[in-house]
Amino acid sequence: MPDTAPASPLRTALAQAAAEIDTALELLLPPAEGPEAPLLAAMRYAAIGGGKRLRGFLVLEGARQFGVSRQAALRVAAAIEMLHAYSLVHDDLPAMDDDDLRRGKPTLHRAFDEATAIIAGDALQAQAFAVLADEDTHADPAVRVELVRCLARAAGARGMCGGQMLDMLAEAATEPLDEAHVGRLQLLKTGRLIEFSAEAGAVLGKAPAPQRHALAAYGRDIGAAFQIADDLLDATASADETGKRTGKDAAAGKATLLGILGLERARMQAERLVEQAVGHLDSFGDRAALLRGLATYTIERKS
After folding, report:
1. What dotted CATH number matches 9-300?
2. What is the pLDDT of residue 2?
3. Beta carbons of 80 and 196 less than 8 angstroms apart
4. What gap in Å lies between CA 266 and CA 273, rounded to an integer?
């Protein structure tokens, strides 16, 4: 049966943000003519349409706490979503997870080809930094440099890429990872980018250090909760519900907190992280109502 329940303020805000981010991506990744057209088409296929836009929403809501212009926040949100799309394209490749389905449609290397997928991912990553470095994102070059620095750190060897490497090494390991090592793997692979997404609005708004640190801590905790929820969905939901292949973590022998803690303890851990995340928002008052709702959404979502 279709969902006829009235949309909550959070669901409405998420839908609006997703539409605005897609519009920004349309402008920042325009179709091309000539020999490069297939590359732009592949980049647009990977980045535009579908997805929860959780990272972009975090940017927009963080920026709203400090009165940052919507246009500036949308450019940063789109840049982070480009980088996230690149990571998914590469994660789905045969050399990595070898997935056929992403966001309810064929993965990029299936829709195009493997070489195009690699190049499109590389180009999306480059374009993300180009957007952050552009004067249209912020008039202050120091802010632009800080955005570039923080995103590079979140995405690089001590962030997302490092986490992906640890994930690959864990699959080949003869002994299973313990809880601390799995937590670090997931912090790097998933958490760092979500943490920066929550912090980016404070960077744009030149926020005081305590408030910037509070948003970063909030992002770090919901990032950890988000990953546990993803593991739970992989174990319990269907591909139709999630828009991607499920059951793959167990089949591949991947290291997850779910595998170590079991279903109930993993759910309890996610709930504790959400409660902790919400506590970081005390200084923002009612302005942070949507961020508080988002924390709960991260573990209640069905996809």
Report:
1. 1.10.600.10
2. 41
3. yes
4. 11
Band of residue 104 on the pLDDT scale cut at 50, 70, 90: confident
pTM of the model: 0.92
Report d(CA 300, CA 284) in Å as an integer: 24
Task: Name the E strands within the chain.
Answer: 101-102, 105-106
**Domain range summary for the chain, segments of one domain joined by +:** 9-300
- Residue 226 dihedral angles phi and psi, to the nearest 5°: -60, -40
147 Cβ partners below 8 Å, 6+ apart? 76, 132, 137, 138, 200, 203, 204
DSSP H or E run through 226: helix 209-236
H-run or E-run covering 69: none
pLDDT surpassing 50 at residue 4: no
d(CA 127, CA 150) in angstroms, rounded, equals 16
Question: Do residues 265 and 121 make contact, with C-beta atoms less than 8 angstroms apart?
Answer: no
